[in-house]
């Protein structure tokens, strides 16, 4: 049975949820490609984070919650053994790193949905969540070389789909401008 969280911890957690939810929701939406699935994924990650809150280091709470989110997504995907395609898009951008137009968001999610699961996860964590290769490797439990390989292949596929030779720097610049 999980331990009850003290009221001061609960306040800290509520502040964490308010601060981290937009980032987690954005990451989840990019991973799943569906609004409802991303909300459910964030909710599940926050519940698991809440249960473990007393063990979470204060400066690493977002990284912990993101890891829980990615692990839960991976577990769900493994159970289903199929990828979910995008059906609906949110009409209003999230408060952080909002993209300029609905059409751009649709195109990005459509392109990400073409990538295999690991490549999509690496590209999202590396270039949209702005994690280092080492952080992505640690989060996914794979080697740094696997992260580099998945990112390279994923970006190559995205470049091919776009029909333009875009570099990693170009994608980072696009994301930062959004």
Automatic annotation (TrEMBL):
It holds the Pfam family Sigma70_r2. The keyword Chloroplast does not apply. The keyword Cytoplasm does not apply. Residues 105-158 form the RNA polymerase sigma factor 70 region 4 type domain. Keywords: DNA-binding, Sigma factor, Transcription, Transcription regulation. Residues 17-82 form the RNA polymerase sigma-70 region domain. InterPro entries: RNA_pol_sigma-70-like, RNA_pol_sigma-70_dom, RNA_pol_sigma-E_actinobac, RNA_pol_sigma70_r2, RNA_pol_sigma70_r4_t2, RNA_pol_sigma_r2, RNA_pol_sigma_r3/r4-like, WH-like_DNA-bd_sf. Transmembrane segments: none annotated. SUPFAM superfamilies: Sigma2 domain of RNA polymerase sigma factors, Sigma3 and sigma4 domains of RNA polymerase sigma factors. Belongs to the sigma-70 factor family. ECF subfamily. This is SigE family RNA polymerase sigma factor.
């Amino acid at each position: 049975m999980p331990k009850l969280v003290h009221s001061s911890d609960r306040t800290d957690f509520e502040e964490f949820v308010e601060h981290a939810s937009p980032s987690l929701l954005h990451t989840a939406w990019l991973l799943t490609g569906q609004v409802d699935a991303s909300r459910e994924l964030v909710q599940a990650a926050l519940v698991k984070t809440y249960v473990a809150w007393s063990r979470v280091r204060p400066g690493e709470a977002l990284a912990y919650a993101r890891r829980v989110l990615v692990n839960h997504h991976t577990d769900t995907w493994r159970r289903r053994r199929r990828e979910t395609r995008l059906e609906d898009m949110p009409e209003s951008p999230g408060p952080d790193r909002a993209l300029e137009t609905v059409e751009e968001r649709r195109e990005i999610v459509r392109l990400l949905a073409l990538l295999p699961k690991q490549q999509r996860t690496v590209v999202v964590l590396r270039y949209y969540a702005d994690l280092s290769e080492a952080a992505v490797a640690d989060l996914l439990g794979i080697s740094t070389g696997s992260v580099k390989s998945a990112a390279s292949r994923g970006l190559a596929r995205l470049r091919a789909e776009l029909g333009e030779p875009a570099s990693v720097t170009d994608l980072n610049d696009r994301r930062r401008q959004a």
